[in-house]
Amino acid sequence: MTSGFGTPAYDVSHLIGGGVLLLSFVMLYQRRIGAVINVFAVQGALLACAAAWQGYVQSAPELYLTALIAFGAKAVAIPLALRLLVGRLGLHKAVETSIGIGASLAAAIGLVGLSVLVVLPVTAGGATPLARVDLTIALSVVLLGMLAMIARRNAISQVIGLLTLENGLILAAVGVAGMPLVVELSTAALVLMVALVAAVVVFQIRDRLDTLDTHVLDRARGDS
Amino acid sequence: MIVLAAILTQLLHLALVLVAAPLVVGGVRWLKARMMGRIGPHPLQPWRDLLKLLRKRPVLAENASWISRAAPYVAVGAAVAALALVPSFSRAMLFAPMSDLLLIAGLLALGRVALALAGMDVGTAFGGLGAAREMSFAALAEPALLLVALSFAILAGSTGLEQIAATFQDGAVGLRVSLALALIALCAVAVAENARIPVDNPATHLELTMVHEAMILEASGRHLALWEAAAALRLTLWLALIVAVFLPFGTAPAGFAPFGWVLGVVAWIAKMALLCFALAAFESAIAKMRVFRVPEFLGAALLLGLLGAILLFVSTRLA
Amino acid sequence: MLTAILLTLLGLVLLALAMPVLAGRRIAPRLAHGGSALASAVFVLMAVAALAGGGAPVAELPFGTPFGPLLVALDGLSAWFLLLLGLAGLCASVFALAHEDAAPARALLAYPLFLAGMALTLLAADGVTLLLGFEAMSLASWALVASDHAKAENRRAARLYLVFAALAAVCLVPALGLLAGPGGDLAFAAIREAPPDGWRAALILALVVAGAGAKAGLVPLHAWLPLAHPAAPSHVSALMSAAMTKVALYVAARMLLDLGGPAQPVWWGVPLVALGAASAVLGALRANLEEEGKTLLAFSTIENVGLVAVGLGLAACFRAADLGALAALAAGAALLHALNHGVFKTLLFLGMGEVAHGAGSRLLDRLGGLIHAMPWTAACMLVGVGAAASLPPLSGFASEWLLLQALIAAWRVGDLTVQMLVLVAAAMVALAAALAAAAMVRLFGLVFLGRPRSPRGAGAHEGKGAARLSLLLPAGLTVLLGLLPGPMLALGGGAQALLTGQAMEGRAGLAFVAVGDGAAAYWPLGAALLLALALFGVWLLVKRGTEEPARGPAWDCGFAAPPQHLPFGDPLTQPTAAGMGQPLRRMLAQPVLAVTERVEMPEPGTVAPARIAMSFGDPAFALLLAPLATARDAVVARTERLRDLSIRQCLMLPFAALVALLLLVAWLEGGA
To answer: How far does the CA of residue B39 sit from the closest CA of chain C (Å)?
Structure first.
């Protein structure tokens, strides 16, 4: 199966990638923590679809395993855990923003434009159109994840931003043919570890400071 | 023969949409009532209201000028003119060469300005408030619409609705993320332009966040009938626009084809009913948003349009 | 043809010179404005003749300068802008005839010179003549801005205006010098032979954009415009807004697109597109916040100047990308919008002048309900407002349709950065158009609709005869230009060809304007016909057998009738200028214009009203002018120290300068 412009292989993966990107935008737009977690779950499911579709297109069975792991972890386990966490902590339902919603959306568009401007010329050499589009979208998702971490003040939303960033990495990994499974798994494990550490820190902050607003931490800095 | 068929389809189209417009409003109301567990008024109720109001003498405020008397006609005239340009059941209608998306946007703007001026004519607090909000929301909705038109133009090579619909009916475009984004943006703009939930509540008459109703508070009798008709026509126009671009299946080809026309009318009615159902379900499921969140809603539509166009640039570059 | 125009120019100058002699006589204003009207009519006739039958070749003036002979010519581009100048000048002069007491006597000298300066700039066929006309225009308009110098804000406006005029000259003189190149021949024909390239081209681009942009009011060099336009008498504001900013755009188009040559890169048009889009949005946004009629219109001018600049920039981009047909489309859109805006902005400014004359104020919060007292003015203004809000089938819509189509087609320029930039520009232009519609609804609604807001406004009256004619003429032209954009574009084919090497031939007919073969088309006559048919049909359907409307008190959601001591009703129930602008102020202006809002609530139990204090500023003042003023003060402080130097040190300075210059010469010659 070829992967040129206008073929089903290209169209479907373009569609799924665009969907993942769109969900990153939706996440930035949401004001409620519950909704953010839901969107994150849907994004995880879509990511699993992307991996499975790439497995089919590239005839690479190990990608099905990636898809399964992504679905299990991203669409089911982590959102459930986050919900539990929010419920247990009795968190405020609203997301506290540090940049306004409109401004962060505009910045997000700028970042997408930037990644298009970077990826397309850089990959002009040999890569297939499919891989180039995938890389563009993946870089956008990564940047949007970082933006989400900056634009939110709540520690839980920052953790979700980090996980979105990792979604972008996986999207990039599955899009490129011949990426060994080990790399993917280790990346995923690494980010999960970071998330775990972040969760522990969240609990610690909460116990010590009675809030999850990371701005409070500024007071605790040694150098100020 | 072709010219005759063009004139015939144009007239049939006008008759069809004019009859359908109040039914669309009534149908959505009825569906919403059913979804909420109420019996609701009959779908024909807007038609009955219209006919009753048309016979009633309007009462004008003492200091109302000719603007109040002329504006409802201008609003309905602009809406009818715009609706005449949106294809429904057949291609190649008489005005098809003129059916340009930007012209339709311009005609809608004409109706909007007439409405806002009528709202300000008597100098009441509500009228001015509604006019200021209506024009401000439009300021964000119009760029979103333009970006959607831009995405269509990249794919179809023109902003003419006829060419866009024909290109999309051929299926040459395939699946496109950009089109999905454009559809979402278009729906958001349509919701805002028609003062539907979550931007405005069409069922309310006295609420501090109202927009559309605030401007026609002073209208009565046949003027009120015309304003209601204009609103119904506008809703029909937006639904027909979405149908024409995104669901172009079953539309009759150019030329004299009575059987194709019947098929086209049936298909159009089915598609419109589907959209009405979707609108009613959407409105039943969500709550109205605060008025100062509307800019965010429309801004998101604008950004989706931008995103769609950027992704389209990427695609065309790789082609 | 040229002879007739030059004789007219001579007549205008003689007229101006006669004014001091005739000072104080009744005939002086009549002569000045009547003569100007006549001269403008000659401009219109000659321009139409030149556009229809080909222009006039280069001719030499009988007197010259040390830099060479003064050359004049009338090609398609000059004629197009001369037509605009003539139309605006005609309407403004007729208006001035009707209100001859409105303008102070000292303005009479400058007014004909202003017209003559603009015409000379358009006719110029070499750099010196161009600068001569441009500076005459700047100085004469400065005198007009300063004519009512009793008010402190007018003096401030005139001072700022002079600074920006000087900036324009400081930029344009070296730009022309660079265009002429080492040969030093300033004739346009010679410059076309050797177009600039490399760093020279980039420098010229920057200088022309700054110089012409400062005169046209492009962001961020627009600070003078909203101050100067309201300071001048209404007919002068009309002329400045409609014609002078366009002359500056003509200079930009002439120097960048015509003299710059066709071999420029794609980014050549990018600065114009970017600054134009920013001007359009900022102008339209601030037009929604201003509370004074003429200031509001001045910001609308900034918006429209921005739109024309976007069109010119796009034309440059398309031409560089070898998309000749689209380049002609963009150039046609820019030229047509310049003309349309010239006509409808003349109408709006003159209408506002009529309102100020009849109702005694230009503040939106002192007017209201004038549609009853000034029906003709209101009807004409409605046409102008509709065109400025770009409603079909009026003139503003036709040119904005073309501009938007050019923007939509701009993705065909292959460069990805340009594509993205133009995409954002398209969204901004659409935003500006919709914002302009909101501003115009606000203007018309507050001035002409509702109830009077002051006793003086309630006793308004409107002028007859010439005053009415001066409004009806541009109103009629606005409708006509809206219905016939195709013939106008065909008429301006020469101008498009000069700018882009190609005209919109075959794509602009009597009834239609098309983007290209098989692409979208706009049928203004068809659209107007359809609209008329729909209106007539609705009227026929509804009107039959129904009785006249009854009159009653306003319903206003059941609010109580106003008390006896409030003759115009309770003013608090009528929207104010600030209230109408509130949604957009909160939605869009907050981040851009540094808006501050403060609500003062009275103590509980007191009967004092709650007050809201609101202010906003222009980023250009804070980011550009304030640092410049600080820098100027610093430089002055440094220079002051020179006064304290000893005689020996004073002698050192010229000596050092001489040695430095000699060294420079030695270095330059050594390199050669």
So the answer is: 30
Triad C456, C442, C339: Cα angle to 5°:
105
Range of the domain at C648: 639-672
Check if B289 contacts A (Cβ < 8 Å): no
Instruction: Judge whether B143 and B80 are in contact, CB under 8 Å.
Output: no
Between the CA of residue A168 and those of A52, A105, A139, what are the distances in Å?
A: 16, 18, 7
C57-84 pLDDT, tens digit per residue, is 888 888 777 777 889 999 999 999 999 9
Q: Which residues of C touch B135 (CB under 8 A)?
A: 434, 437-438, 441-442
Question: In a 3-state reduction of DSSP, which class is residue A32?
Answer: strand
Residues B251, B91 contacting (CB under 8 angstroms): yes
- Whether C471 and C350 have beta carbons less than 8 Å apart is answered as yes
Residue spans of the domains in chain B: they are 2-21+47-318
Alpha-carbon torsion (C222, C226, C229, C234), positive or negative = positive
Answer whether A133 sits within 8 Å of B176, measured CB to CB.
no
Phi/psi region, residue B10 (left: phi>0; alpha: psi -120 to 50; beta: rest), is: alpha
The tokens of C35 are what?
């003569």
Total domains in chain A come to 1
Tokens of A66: 């990636």
Q: Are C562 and C570 in contact (CB under 8 A)?
A: yes
Task: Give the model confidence (pLDDT) of B151-180 as tens digits.
Answer: 999 988 889 998 898 888 887 666 678 888
User: C591 to chain A: nearest residue by CA?
Assistant: A103
Sign (positive or negative) of CA dihedral A87, A88, A90, A94: negative
Long-range residue pairs from B219-222, CB within 8 A, at least 24 positions apart, any chain: B219/B58, B219/B68, B219/B72, B219/B118, B220/B56, B220/B58, B220/B59, B221/B53, B221/B56, B221/B57, B221/B58, B221/B59, B221/C549, B222/B53, B222/B54, B222/B55, B222/B56, B222/B57, B222/B58, B222/C542, B222/C546
Q: For residue C308, is it within any domain?
A: no
Domain count, chain C: 1
Q: Write the pLDDT tens digit of every residue in C605-662.
A: 888 888 888 888 888 888 888 888 899 899 999 888 887 877 788 888 888 998 999 8
C-alpha distance from C237 to closest chain B C-alpha (Å):
27
Residue A3 falls inside a structural domain = no
Residues A174, A71: contact at Cβ < 8 Å?
no
Cα–Cα dist B9/B254, whole Å? 10
Query: Which of C416, C421, C590 has the most A C-beta neighbours within 10 Å, making it the best mutation to test the interface with A?
Result: C416
Which of B139, B153, B292 is nearest residue C435 as measured by Cβ atoms?
B139
**Contact with chain A for residue C420, Cβ under 8 A:** yes
- A149-198 per-position pLDDT tens digit: 888 777 777 778 888 888 888 888 877 766 666 666 666 666 776 777 77
* Strand C550-552, strand B59-61: pairing: parallel
> How far, CA to CA in Å, does C428 sit from each of B294, C439, C443?
19, 16, 22
Residue C573 lies in a domain: no
**A88 falls within a domain:** yes
Does A160 map to a domain?
yes
The parent domain of residue A172 ranges over 8-220
Q: Is C64 helix (H, G, I), strand (E, B) or coil?
A: strand
Q: Is residue A156 part of a domain?
A: yes
Rounded Cα gap, residues A104 and A97, in angstroms: 9
What percent of the residues of chain C are helix, what percent strand, and what percent coil, each to the nearest 5? 70, 5, 20
Strand, helix or coil for residue C80: helix
The verdict on residue C663 lying in a domain is yes
Is residue C576 in some structural domain?
A: no
Contact A35, A82 (CB under 8 A): no
Residue identified by tokens 């639904």 is B239
Cβ–Cβ gap A116/C420 under 8 Å? yes
Q: What share of chain A is helix, strand, coil (3-state, %, to 5)?
A: 80, 5, 20
Q: What is the dihedral of CA C320, C321, C324, C330, to 10 degrees?
A: -80
